[in-house]
Specification:
The protein is of the alpha/beta class. Helices cover 20% and strands 27% of the residues. It is built from six helices and eleven strands. The protein has an eleven-stranded mixed sheet, with helices on both faces. Strand 1 and strand 2 form a beta hairpin. The longest helix is centred in the N-terminal third of the chain and has 11 residues. The protein starts with a strand and ends in a 7-residue tail after the last strand.
Length: 256
């Protein structure tokens, strides 16, 4: 699928060209993985319609979504997102796995699930997939259910406003699992934790030409970030009125 490039210079490229050869691991800080936050929202800032994000985007959005998954050593999401969206195997077909290998990555991405209370139903497709390796970051002392997937647990300290303190855990993910790059897909509370600890290096934001109203889910929820996290615009792509923007974090310092 072809997209129009609006910035920095006009042009045309495919979704695969936009989401290949990014070499994210080469950009990693010395003590943690490089982290890209990938989100989609409506014109009024909603990230879900009827509880899920799938109906917000278009075909270009889906191609970029799965393409970006080919660029990280790991794909991360909060437990609520994994439950609501019914996550399965992170890399969905052999073609995408081959793309990862061409870019020097393992064919399958490590699945990282952030779950403060370790609330992971055993019937999740991701946990029922024997080819998936799932790493759970949690502040709970509970255990994961017995499932076909390989499940490891890293335990950390609870965050002051729920969740788990992420920076020490991401350092251990780098050291113990050799993860140099992570593509994170939310949700809003996890995004807030990452931003407040200064752990987001890029933001990929898709803007859908829809007004949804109703559900108060936004890209980030939680107390105000002080100061706000600043980003620089790298490029803008367009397809069928949908805009796809890539931003780089201006400063790696914590936002509060």
């Amino acid at each position: 699928m072809k997209l129009r490039r609006l910035h920095p210079e006009p042009g045309e490229l495919s979704a695969e060209e936009a989401s290949s050869g990014l070499r994210l691991g080469e950009l990693a800080p010395h003590d943690r993985p490089y982290l890209v936050l990938n989100m989609v929202e409506t014109l009024d800032g909603r990230i879900a319609i009827d509880g899920r994000s799938g109906s917000i985007g278009n075909e270009a959005d889906r191609e970029l979504f799965h393409g970006l998954r080919t660029q990280g050593d790991a794909v991360m999401a909060g437990a609520g997102t994994v439950r609501t969206e019914r996550y399965g195997r992170m890399i969905k077909n052999d073609e995408l796995r081959a793309r990862r290998e061409r870019d020097g990555l393992a064919p399958d991405a490590l699945a990282i699930v952030v779950s403060g209370r370790l609330n992971l139903p055993a019937d999740l497709p991701l946990l029922q997939d024997p080819d998936s390796h799932v790493l759970v970051l949690t502040a709970s002392d509970g255990e994961a259910p017995e499932v076909p997937a390989r499940v490891d647990i890293l335990r950390g300290d609870p965050a002051p406003d729920a969740g788990v303190v992420l920076a020490p855990l991401l350092k251990r993910v780098r050291e113990q699992y050799d993860v140099r790059s992570i593509v994170c897909e939310g949700g809003p509370a996890l995004n807030h934790g990452l931003l407040s600890e200064g752990l987001v290096d890029e933001l990929w934001l898709a803007l859908s030409p829809k007004l949804a109203a109703g559900e108060p889910l936004t890209v980030v929820t939680g107390h105000a970030l002080r100061p706000p996290a600043d980003f620089d615009l790298l490029w803008v792509l367009e397809s069928e009125g949908h805009l796809f923007m890539r931003y780089a974090a201006r400063s790696p310092q914590p936002a509060d």
